[in-house]
User: What shape does this take?
Amino acid sequence: MFVRTIPSHFTTTSPLWMRVMVGVKRVVDYTVKVRVKDNKVQCDGLKMSVNPFDEIAIEEAIQMREKKLADEVIAVTIGNKKAEEVLRTAMALGCDKAIHIVTPDGEAEGLEPLVVAKIFQKLHEEIKPDMWILGKQAVDDDLGNTPQLLAGLLEIPQGTFASKVEVSDGKVKVTREIDAGHQVVELQLPCVIAADLRLNTPRFPKLPNIMKARKKPIDSRDVSSLGVDTKPRLVREAVMEPPLRKAGIKVKSVEDLYDKLHNEAKVI
Amino acid sequence: MLRRTLSAMAGKVLVVAEMHNGKVSPATLAAVTAGMKVGPVTALVAGKDATKTAADVAKVKGVENVLVAKGDHYENGLPEEYAPLIASVVKDGYTHVFAGTSAFGKNVIPRAAAKADAMPISDVTEVKDDSTFVRLMYAGNVVCTVRSLDPVKYATIRSTSFERAPLDGGSAQTKEVEATKAEGKSKWIEDTVASSEKPDLQTAANVVVGGRGLKNAENFKILNELAEPLKAAVGATRAVVDAGYCPNEMQIGQTGKTVAPNFYLGCGVSGAIQHVAGMKDAKVIAVINNDADAPFFQVADYGLVEDLFVAVPKLTSLVKK
Assistant: This one.
């Protein structure tokens, strides 16, 4: 329904040009180990980056435009003022436009997936994209349910844990990573795709593109203007560090190792 | 026990059952155990001809009722078809909807939650009471206790954190429920399942894991040779999966599978945060690595600094003795 066809004399490769929206989250860099203090996760001063799965989502969307399957790629983030930097990265990588839903400073992890999905739903109704590509999970809260929630709210199909996405004839064939191997499903447009690690290898932004991206405008909106209730449904009662394992020992030889495993731990 | 009978049993739990090769999946059995902590458990079974499946699920200890929905469109676990079914069943007064944390559960539960305007709770490791749950964040580096304010709680259950309910000893009542009409927005094309005679990674008592130190795909042979006498499953780190040495379903970690075997042996594994997130609940951890500074040595109960190409075959021959 939302698929816009371009008159045939403009296109030689594909009659289907899609508008793709990509969700991007600013998270603590995946290489950093967070600490817990005063019943809170300490994120101040830590290195922040684009959620690794979102980099993959951006890359997939850009590749679609390069293959002339998409004609517009819009990056969206929800977060405080600083979250703007992930949109600059997204535009340096090739996204055409960016929308920043600005939230007040506060809780480090930001809004719950259900709220994020509801905000995306509002944007969907306004912008009418043909496809959403999101990362399969954010490496901070590890919830991994925004794509499914968005697809559920919009009542459109979902292709989660995608390792391959092929678009043809207004349909999307998605290869999914499942527990025992792969599954291929065919989805109608519009749909939501959740990117798995295997989908692609994200490119690095080039310096001239980073400079150009600084000048691209960002459509900033205050979260309160969207009419979405942002109150969390999951109240954090306690935040702790996991119990430490008791220190192990180093053995000197394979024989020692076998002896310990066989006689002490009794596992082999 | 006392606590359960006094306060927490007010719940009414729906467990969305998942089948693997005609067997009730281990993840579903863990979800049943988790469900029993909040109230009587009803299992929902759906498929083309779900009668046999329903009979198997009815025998699972702890399941009190089985609901069966028959329809071709449920056959491949498509979330677009399951979510409306769950929505139609939940109306019957359920307070909790659980499934195992598996590709199926992660796909279906949040979509069903969206229909109910509920915030799903992913990968629960502990059920404190009917509205308080424990889960991990930041690749397992933060343990978070959350209290859900939703009237119906949708959650996926980490299968390595709960005992699996026994496959027999139960005698549940089976009831057929009306199938929802097919949505038809998605179509299943095929499953390509890696055939493997070896033990299943997530349920194996012993797991042998290869990391970047293995250098190439052929070298996995030495791990397979060790795994055989140990009756161990073979797993891998992201680095080796990315390099194409082995398929993705062997990946253990934050974004792969979570394992909690009795014995875990890492060979050439450095112990990155993301990998440790998927295995640190193993009872006994041993590591063989020629890099004495590898972070894995801080996690391991037994560490051996040695070239794995020398140590692993030697260990294999000792195990075989």
